[in-house]
Amino acid sequence: MITVHHLNKSRSKRVLWLLEELDMPYEVVVHDRDATTNLAPDSLRAIHPLGKSPIIVDGDTTLCESGVIMEYILDQAGQNALRPDKDSPDYYRYLEWLHFAEGSLALPVIARMIMNMEQRAGDQPLDGYIAKEIAVDFAYIEDILSRQDYFAGKNFTAADIMMTIMLEVAASIGLLEGRAKTLAYLGRMQARAAYQKAASFG
Ligand SMILES: N[C@@H](CCC(=O)N[C@@H](CS)C(=O)NCC(=O)O)C(=O)O
User: Fold this and answer.
1) Which stretch of 16-30, 62-76, 78-92, 128-142 has the lowest confidence by average pLDDT?
2) pTM, whole model, 2 decimals?
3) Which contacts (CB < 8 Å, 24+ apart) does range 155-160 have?
4) Which of 15, 44, 66, 152 could pair covalently with 40 via S-S, beta carbons 3.0-4.6 A apart?
5) Please, which residues have CB within 8 angstroms of residue 29's CB and are 6 or more apart in sequence?
6) What number does the ligand 1 atom closest to the CA of 33 have?
7) Percent of the chain, pLDDT > 90?
8) Best substitution site from 52, 63, 163 to test ligand 1's pocket, by max atoms within 8 Å of Cβ?
């Protein structure tokens, strides 16, 4: 059985959400962020040298990186639920969004969040880079969601789970203001029963 090492308020909600959507059995070990630094505790480093969440353990396999973990779980599920068939025209669109969440969107969103916390908004050249990335990325996302219900097309996929968690962070620092389609999409995702079960772990 898969063990999910879950850090509160973190990307491991993606993994719990996916397992809930697939109705797969799993165990959860909860790790709490350090109250002062907000970083992961040493208990996560004991599982994997990077000490970051999510981490899963399944028998002899220990994996980090949420996108890879999503693919691993979908392979274990042994069906093409929650990702398009490989010969579908939506397949590479699905992979694009699955990777976009961490490969493109995470850096400007997380950097902006940290700069806001440290009251360093406006520091150049980083702030200029972040502002440009955020403007381009969220205009693109709003356009896609004005034309289709889900990132990979007509169906809900694991790419929606990857994207939603980063959109939540973006919403929490006001980056979705005025993005009506993106906000409506976020509300629909958060209303899913499997999302709510995952969110109940904190
Ligand atoms: N790209 C990685 C990012 C992992 C990551 O940065 N996780 C954060 C939580 S969202 C973390 O563990 N932070 C605590 C720390 O670095 O101490 C993924 O998608 O899994």
Assistant:
1) 78-92
2) 0.96
3) 155/84, 155/90, 156/82, 157/82, 157/83, 157/84, 157/94, 158/18, 158/70, 158/71, 158/74, 158/82, 158/83, 158/94, 158/98, 159/83, 159/94, 159/95, 159/96, 159/97, 159/98, 159/101, 160/97, 160/189
4) 44
5) 3, 4, 5, 6
6) 14
7) 93
8) 52
DSSP run (H or E) holding 63: strand 61-64
Distance 88 CA to ligand 1 centre (A): 32
Q: Do 158 and 111 fall into the same domain?
A: yes
Residues 174 and 108 reside in one and the same domain: yes
Averaged pLDDT, 144-162: 97
